Amino acid sequence: MQPLKAFEDTVASWPRISVYSHRFGGREFRFANAEVGHVHDGGIVDIPFPRSIRDALLTEGLLKSISGFQFRVDYISRSKQQ
Fold first, then answer.
1. Ramachandran region of residue 13, left (φ > 0), alpha (ψ -120 to 50) or beta?
2. I need a surface site. Which of 32, 35, 43, 77 has the fewest CB within 10 A?
3. Cα–Cα dist 46/43, whole Å
4. 20 in Cβ contact with 27 (< 8 Å)
5. Coil, helix or strand for 80?
6. How far is CA 67 from the centre of its chain?
7. Element counts in the chain: helices (H) and strands (E)
8. CB 22 within 8 A of CB 16
9. Closest Cα to residue 40, out of 1, 72, 8?
10. What confidence tens digit (pLDDT) does each residue in 5-51 have?
11. Higher pLDDT among residues 14 and 80, named by residue
12. What pLDDT, on the 0 to 100 scale, is given for residue 21?
């Protein structure tokens, strides 16, 4: 199974999560009617985090910021980097 499909299937299995096409390509994940994140076709995952969590994840090296969004961290899937 492709890594992005496996990622989508995992997130889609969570309670009350639904998956839709994202307006800029890729797949969007919603909890009820609210978007909780999306994955681009190239493997970049956008997930909005509160600043404290974002900063902690960046400090630990678990995420890589590649955009200027104040409360968003973009993550390039490890499978694409390897």
1. alpha
2. 32
3. 10
4. yes
5. helix
6. 13
7. 3, 5
8. no
9. 8
10. 888 898 899 999 999 999 888 899 999 889 998 888 877 788 877 87
11. 14
12. 93
Residue with tokens 């499978």, as numbered in its chain: 79
In Å, the largest CA–CA distance within the chain is 35
State residue 65's pLDDT score. Answer: 63
pTM value?
0.67
Burial classification of residue 27, based on how many CB atoms lie within 10 Å of its CB (0-12 exposed, 13-18 middle, 19 or more buried): buried
Per-residue pLDDT band for 70 (boundaries 50, 70, 90) equals very low
What residues have CB less than 8 Å from 73, skipping those under 6 apart? 46, 47, 49, 54, 57, 58, 63, 64, 65
Overall average pLDDT of the 42-62 stretch: 79
